[in-house]
Specification:
The complex is a heterodimer of chains A (about 230) and B (about 400).
Chain A lengths: L3 E11 L5 E12 L4 E5 L6 H9 L6 E6 L2 E2 L5 H11 E4 L11 H10 L6 H10 L15 H13 L5 E5 L7 H17 L3 E6 L11 E3 H4 L12
Parallel strand pairs in A: 3-8, 3-9, 6-7, 7-8
Antiparallel strand pairs in A: 1-2, 1-4, 4-5
Helix pairs in contact in A: 3-4, 3-5, 4-5, 5-6
Chain B lengths: L1 H12 L1 H33 L7 E5 L3 H8 L12 H8 L4 E13 L2 E6 L3 H4 L1 E2 L3 E2 L15 E4 L1 H7 L6 E2 L2 E2 L13 E6 L11 E4 H5 L14 E6 L2 H14 L3 E4 L2 H11 L1 H29 L4 H9 L4 H42 L11 H16 L1 H8 L3 H5 L4
Parallel strand pairs in B: 3-10, 6-9
Antiparallel strand pairs in B: 1-11, 1-12, 2-3, 2-8, 2-11, 4-5, 6-10, 7-9
Classes of the chains: A alpha/beta (about 230), B alpha+beta (about 400).
């Protein structure tokens, strides 16, 4: 059974002029446990929305998503929150670290909502991403590469089975991008977590064995806006 | 644990506004407790300051004025009581003790009260505690120009054993009205924490015969303090003097007369309480405003927490807890405000009346007022918490342009 499985997923938004814009229309997608796949596509093709739907941050209009056998559609928001905290790690393009918290606390918060906070594991993860000497640093005291490393440690904090990475190298220079990308892949592999990464930069995806164009998956890319009822 | 960490860090991030708001809470809680305590303690202390006396007999007039004059050594006497009237009531079988007081002179604003030498034996404060003098001193003797100074008056006037002074005519100090008589201090009374601490005691005849006093009233007294053998006879004497007679006033029971005074000024208590509650509401409002105004800046932070799996209820609770925590921060300085306000009020009240309020005394208000403020603040946090509850996670996570 696939770790991530989705069928007939649809998501639309109302645009400011009142038209309904379908952003996601994916008939089928799946990801196996420990599999790593990169989806690429230009900006505005629904990459972030796709990940938000999988993570349960957004509710789908139609279709079905299951992560580790747990439904992420047709369930309450609280249920999705619990499932996200328990099974999914999320890495953002802009790191989204909490500025008032140290590196260690940011990682601990990654565990807090899914179960018990394990201080030892938080430190261990930060050491794994090369920040053992920056445990009590605040994000503003870290370089952008280091901040993204904290975000990687946080994403893995709660032993997720699936890590979603949204343009994780978008704010990094090319050398750091390669390092961070390699780190994300290795860390996921060591943690036995599957990785679904989306990026607009096809160049950095070279290291991935499996890459796919979101446009090929997403039929909404070819659809036109329909007027609002 | 996570909730506390979130709250602690948020307070640190918004330290300035948190401190300013906490100080507003401190002022509110300090005011609330002070108003309540001063009101309650003043009421209890004043109504319990009868000095062991049950009633006051005086000239026809206001009972309250009589009590204020004879017990609290405030106000002027409504008139005189003839010596025969004193003898009559003191020989009444229902009366356990009667002590005449002559009032009308002062020394630098502190009243001279002429009375009998059995004053320390019959005047009580607290439970069976009698007035006493400090080591080395003694009580005055009849026929001598001797004085015993109340502890507070002695301190304020810097009078010591063996010092001599000339009294001044009238209850208010006027340097032009100095009497010729010279009195010597033979005793300093030990503190009683009652209005008696502000009094200069001299022999009754000394005050009655002071130069310049009206010779026709030389044997009169200002009031007679009375101890009854039984409370029931108070009713009988009340009827005798107040209803059947028309020359004298029998103020009984003393505590009721003082309670009337407090009732008369009840509106003042209510205004003070209203002000204190208004400050409490303003404090809660400022908590609401400061957190609410920070919500836009915290939108991303809240979205991140939600993305990490925090439920809506969790962020809601975090904001409400933060609002309550600001109030909790204000509690310690609130108690400091309280001690400062009550201490100042107690010092003023003691200086004016001799009555001592105890700022350290226990009262449930010291618990319920802070709890009420914390509750009110938590309530104020509900509005920004609703905003946090409704935060758009996907929108909040979007990269800032």
């Amino acid at each position: 059974m696939a770790l991530l499985e989705l069928t007939d997923l649809r998501k639309s938004f109302a645009s400011p002029d009142g038209t309904i814009l379908t952003v996601i229309d994916i008939p089928r997608f799946q990801l196996d446990a420990r599999q790593q796949i990169a989806l690429f596509g230009p900006s505005g093709t629904g990459k972030t929305t796709f990940l938000h739907l999988i993570a349960g941050i957004l509710g789908a209009d139609a279709g079905r998503i299951t992560v580790a056998g747990k439904p992420m559609t047709g369930v309450s928001e609280a249920h999705r929150d619990r499932a996200r905290a328990a099974h999914i790690g999320y890495i953002f393009q802009t790191f989204n670290l909490l500025q008032g918290f140290t590196a260690r606390e940011n990682v601990q918060l990654g565990m807090a909502f899914g179960g018990q906070t394990d201080h030892h594991r938080a430190d261990e993860l930060l050491r794994r991403v090369g920040l053992g000497h920056r445990l009590d640093y605040f994000p503003r005291q870290l370089s952008t590469g280091q901040q993204q490393r904290v975000a990687v440690a946080r994403a893995l904090a709660n032993h997720p089975q699936l890590v979603l990475a949204d343009e994780p190298t978008g704010n990094l220079d090319s050398a750091t991008s390669r390092e961070v990308l390699q780190l994300i892949r290795e860390a996921c592999r060591e943690s036995n977590a599957a990785l679904l990464l989306v990026s607009h930069d096809a160049a950095i995806l070279g290291s991935f064995g499996e890459t796919e164009s979101l446009a090929d998956l997403n039929q909404a890319s070819r659809a036109t806006a329909s007027p609002a009822p | 644990m996570t909730l506390l960490l979130l709250v602690r860090r948020s307070l640190r991030q918004h330290a300035l506004s948190a401190v300013v708001t906490a100080l507003t809470v401190a002022l509110a809680v300090g005011l609330l407790m002070s108003v309540w305590m001063v009101k309650r303690q003043a009421h209890d202390t004043f109504t319990g300051q009868a000095g062991g006396w049950d009633a006051v007999l005086g000239a026809r007039g206001s009972k309250l004025q009589l009590v204020l004059n004879a017990i609290f050594h405030l106000e002027a006497s409504p008139g005189n009581v003839a010596w025969d009237d004193y003898l009559t009531i003191s020989s009444n079988r229902a009366v356990a003790a009667a002590l005449p007081l002559a009032i009308g002179d002062n020394y630098r604003g502190f009243r001279l009260v002429g009375t009998l030498t059995n004053l320390p034996a019959v005047a009580e404060f607290g439970r069976n505690q009698h007035l006493d003098v400090e080591n080395g001193g003694r009580w005055f003797e009849d026929g001598y120009r001797e004085a015993v100074i109340g502890s507070f008056a002695a301190r304020k006037l810097a009078l010591h054993l063996g010092d001599e002074f000339h009294p001044y005519h009238g209850l208010n100090f006027d340097p032009k009205n100095e009497h010729q008589e010279k009195y010597v201090v033979v005793g300093i009374a030990k503190p009683s924490n009652t209005p008696m601490d502000r009094v200069i005691w001299i022999p009754l005849a000394g005050l009655q015969n002071m130069s310049g006093h009206d010779p026709s009233t030389v044997s009169d007294v200002s009031a007679v303090l009375i101890k009854l053998r039984s409370p029931i006879v108070g009713q009988q004497l009340d009827v005798l003097y107040n209803r059947q007679g028309n020359r004298l006033t029998f103020a009984w029971p003393i505590a009721r007369e003082v309670a009337f005074l407090f009732d008369r000024f009840g509106w003042f208590d209510r205004v003070l309480s209203l002000i204190a509650w208004l400050v409490a509401v303003v404090a809660s409002g400022s908590i609401l405003a400061s957190i609410y105004n920070s919500m836009s800046a915290r939108r991303r932070e809240l979205a991140i927490l939600r993305a990490l799996g925090a439920r809506r209820q969790t962020v809601f609770s975090a904001i409400v807890t933060e609002a309550a925590a600001v109030a909790v921060l204000g509690l310690l300085p609130g108690y400091a405000f309280y001690f400062a306000i009550v201490g100042t009020a107690a010092a003023i009240i003691r200086a004016q009346t001799g009555v001592v309020l105890d700022a350290m005394a226990w009262d449930p208000v010291l618990v319920w007022a802070p709890l009420a403020l914390v509750g009110l603040s938590a309530l104020a946090g509900v509005i920004p918490a609703i905003k946090a509850y409704r935060v758009d996670v996907a929108g909040g996570l979007a990269p800032e342009s």
